[in-house]
Amino acid sequence: MSFWANKKVVVTGGAGFLGSHIVAKLKDRGVSQIIIPRSKVYDLREQEACREVVKGADIVIHLAANVGGIGYNRDFPGTLFYDNLLMGVHMMEESRLARVSKFVGIGTICAYPKFAPVPFKEDDLWNGYPEETNAPYGLAKKMMLVQGTAYRSQYNFNSIFLLPVNLYGPGDNFSVESSHVIPALIKKFVEAKQSADPSVTVWGTGQATREFCYVDDAAEGIVLATEKYDESLPVNIGAGFEISIKDLVEKIRAIVGYTGEIIWDTTKPDGQPRRMLDTNRAKEKFGFGATTNFDVGLKETIEWYKQNQ
């Protein structure tokens, strides 16, 4: 609690899925000065807007991103690269100029090489090119790691870089255009059951694997890192397990109670073949470990969607 005493904290993306959970945890820790810049007022691709946002801040947690699932990444690679690169560069530079005491950059598992050994270790981050579909997004976010390391070396600027795995939970983005795999599948199966559709079509082969971290766990990891971690080395934030998309589909189908056919559209991409993070560094450096059982978290997310769709 003493770490947060009298601190003004800026949380870009603080009104979003992950951001709202982080803001709640900051409030629980007694933080009273929390600034949440909204995109309709501040375009964080503009340096002047970033300058206004960080004025007088002690800590900046930069979550804001233009982000989406495989289809969104495939359709808007240039936009995703440009938007995320500029937001990161300008936010960190203006934080440095404003003498912010700590900058927390939030990266993405998409930054890892396409064929990184599983589980992904932070030391493997530069050993290859990311999966092509989401490389523009992943590389744009990874530039915050480069910038932060350079700024620590030249300016002694305290910046850290965290790599969350795919998140899920109540309040997720269920948009048809930009949702990630869990909310997209939940939406498909719930609506198919409600409409008595005979089949549900799912992208890819189902062979790819993913790791998922409950959003509240990830928020706790980020807040712990903000409190306790002050090094340039990147740190994974994850749950430390792997599940195939096929098994994920069957889990969601069973919880929803859908009994129709599943059609796999193999003309659509699988994305990265496998994803799972090594989470040892987070445990060692700031004592973080995810605690939410996946089946429990999945049921809570499905129930939330049914009540809020």
Structure description:
This protein is α/β, with parallel strands linked by helices and 309 residues long. The protein has a domain of 212 residues: NAD(P)-binding Rossmann-like Domain (Rossmann fold, 3-Layer(aba) Sandwich), CATH 3.40.50. Helix content is 42%, strand content 15%. The chain has ten helices and twelve strands. The strands form four sheets. The chain has a six-stranded parallel β-sheet, sandwiched between helices. Strands 6-9 form a two-stranded parallel ribbon. α1 links the parallel β1 and β2. α2 packs across α4 and α6 packs across α10. The longest helix is centred in the first third of the chain and has 21 residues.
The Rg value, from CA coordinates, equals 19 Å
Which CATH architecture of the domain at 2-168 and 213-240 and 276-292 would you pick? 3-Layer(aba) Sandwich
Spatial strand arrangement across the major sheet: 2-1-3-4-5-10
Q: How does the helix and strand content classify structurally?
A: alpha/beta
DSSP strand tally: 12
Q: End-to-end span in angstroms?
A: 37 Å
Give the helix proportion (percent range): 40-55%
What quaternary form is this? single chain
Detail the poorly predicted runs: none
Number of helices: 10
Descriptive tags:
single chain; 309 residues; 12 strands; globular; two-stranded parallel sheet; alpha/beta; Rossmann fold
Task: Explain the layout of strands and helices.
Blueprint: E1 8-12, H1 17-28, E2 33-35, H2 47-54, E3 59-62, H3 70-75, H4 77-97, E4 102-106, H5 135-155, E5 159-164, E6 166-168, H6 181-195, E7 199-203, E8 209-210, E9 212-214, H7 215-228, E10 235-237, E11 243-244, H8 245-256, E12 261-265, H9 280-286, H10 294-308
Parallel strand pairs: 1-2, 1-3, 3-4, 4-5, 5-10, 6-9, 7-12
Antiparallel strand pairs: 8-11
